[in-house]
Every structure is written in C-alpha cells, then in structure tokens.
Design brief:
By secondary structure, the protein is of the alpha+beta class. It is built from eleven helices and six strands. A six-stranded antiparallel sheet has the order 1-6-5-4-3-2.
Amino acid sequence: MLFRASAVGSHTTLSRIIRMVRQAQSSKPEIGQLADKISAVFVPVVVVIALVSAAIWYFFGPAPQIVYTLVIATTVLIIACPCALGLATPMSIISGVGRAAEFGVLVRDADALQRASTLDTVVFDKTGTLTEGKPQVVAVKTFADVDEAQALRLAAALEQGSSHPLARAILDKAGDMQLPQVNGFRTLRGLGVSGEAEGHALLLGNQALLNEQQVGTKAIEAEITAQASQGATPVLLAVDGKAVALLAVRDPLRSDSVAALQRLHKRDIVW
C-alpha cells in the first residue's frame, strides 16, 4: 500500500482551518471597533475625573487627606474604568468562533459572526450538505429494443473513464457486470460523456447533450419530467443517435436535513 503526501506543515487543510479560526478570533467586528473608539475617549475622561476628585478631597476633605485622596482616586478609576467594555467584545468573539468551530462551522471574520444574528436567508450546497453525497441509481427506464441490463452495461462502460459522482453511482449499480471496452471516450463539460463500444456510438448525459447532438427526446419528455419532479437526476443514454434509456440517479437526504430545515422555518429563515 502506497501513500502520497500532497501537503505538509502549514499547507495542510488542518493548518488552514486553524489559521482561519485564529484570524477570525483576532479580528474585530463593527461593534468592537465602536467600543475601541468609545474607550479611547472615555479613558482620558475618567482619569481627569479621578484627578479632579482626588484634588477636591485633598484640599477640602477631612484628615488624613493623603489617604482619602488615594481612596477616592482609586475608587473613581475602578468604578468608571471601561474594562468591561473593552474586554466583552473580544471575549465573546473568541468564545463564539471557537464554539462554532466545534460544530464544524468556520467563521472567516468577526464581522460575519456579528451579522449572522440578522440572517433571513440561508443558501445550502445540496450535495454532501443536505444529502449524503452518495448518489444511487434508483430506476432504469428503457425505450426501443434495449433491456435494462444492456442499458446499464453500456452506461457503466462509458462511465469507467469519468470521475463524476453520478458515474460512481452508475458503476456501483452495474456491480460485477462484464463491461465492454470503450474507444474514443470524451468528456463534454456540463453535458456528459461520449464514446464507442461494440460498434455503437454512445452518448450519456443530460437532455441538453442529446439535444445538442440532435437526438430526439420528445418521446421521453414525460418520463424526464416525472423523474425530475421526484428529486432524481435523469441521465439519458443514446445509442447510434437514438435515446434508448433513462437512468434516474438520486442522492438520499441526510437523516437530519428535514429537521434542520424545519428549525430554520420556525425562525423565519428562508432557504
């Protein structure tokens, strides 16, 4: 068994995450900057008030004047010092960012954490976030003179050269089938794949791919719509310029996705 290290030290993903968390903890949100501005004015004012109070007690207070002067000056500084104002924001940011990291939430800066309380819309990446990230072929619909096993065999043969998650789902569905060799394999970005196998020209991808290659899909339009309405991704197989099969691929929802979205709805957060 061979292992290859793609990154070491500060270039690893863990190091980048730690660096991001530390950067967020050291940044200051808008309210923190406001607290600093107030403290910059408030501290000199407090010192002046303490000195004035000490002077009054020194010249007009009872004996011993020195003791009362020190007590009064110290008391004013302790009571009026804006230490809480200066420490509250950084401490809450450090605690909040650290707590979020424990739940797998990385905050880029403190201002983002502050604005999170006013969020009314959340946009999710579906694959791997709301779903398990493991697509599965849930149905194979065939048309013309191609049976389900043959359609799955040709589709899996094409997907051998692809690294797309849908390709893995089709290959898993094919299992131990004997797959034919594919020649002239091509990946068509955003559309699908193409190639030749057993003397047939093959296309596998979305409806846009077949339309671009002038393969008619009107006869299977209803089936495409039906599968899409059920949350499946329709993958179409065309052989020699004719649509012969539809593979419905669906990524199962995570067990906690529905409950999480319901909690967001209860908080009037649109998703």
